[in-house]
Each structure stands twice: as structure tokens, then as C-alpha cells.
């Protein structure tokens, strides 16, 4: 399980600065306290204004749910948000584009057909041929 990192204050400030810039890119006026950014963003994400306030002040580690909502809403890579926020270390996550672990065990012919979107009579033919190619073994 990934470990949360203990961000020093400098890292918290760096995250806060980076996030403010990302919000500006999405037309949120984070520089004007009267702009209502906390209320607006909280309503759009379905979280409290106080959660947004803590996030924008760099207080504490943001909740994973909040980071996920931000990722979707602002079209920011979740991996980048998790790392920059200090929730996980970069080494705890696979690199972008890295292959994922293969499934455990072998697939049955039926599971392979389902995964390939083969249905009906074609599925029956596919599974029969796979079994025949495997030497008649029933997997």
C-alpha cells in the first residue's frame, strides 16, 4: 500500500502555489478573496467551502476524494495531484504508460471470449477451438 509522505512546509507551499496556478488556468480568480472561489469550487466539487479553504491555504493533506474530484473537474492528472499534494511518493505509483501486472492465473476460454467481446454462437465456436488447440483440456 502506498505510504503518505510527510511534506515539509516548503512542499506544502509549492503544492499550494502550483494548485493556484492550475485554478487560474481554469478561470478561477484565486487572487481576489471576494471572488467567491471557495464557495464556487466547493459547490462544483460537492465539498464544503472549509475543505476548499484548507486546500488553498495548504493546511493539512487534502482528502483523496477531494483530489479525485479536482482531477476530474480541472482535467488534471490524478497521479500528478497525488504526488504534488504529498499523499503518495512518486516511487509508490507506476510511471505513466508503465505496463500493469498481468492477471493472476490463466483465463478460461469463456473469460477470454468475454474480454474480446465475442458473443453468441461465435463465443461457442471460439471456446471450442481454444479447447481443441489446448489439446482438449477443459480449463
From TrEMBL:
Gene3D superfamilies: lambda repressor-like DNA-binding domains. CDD domains: HTH_XRE (cd00093). InterPro entries: Cro/C1-type_HTH, Lambda_DNA-bd_dom_sf. PROSITE patterns: HTH_CROC1 (PS50943). Residues 38-81 form the HTH cro/C1-type domain. It holds the Pfam family HTH_3. Residues 90-117 are annotated as: Disordered. This is Helix-turn-helix transcriptional regulator.
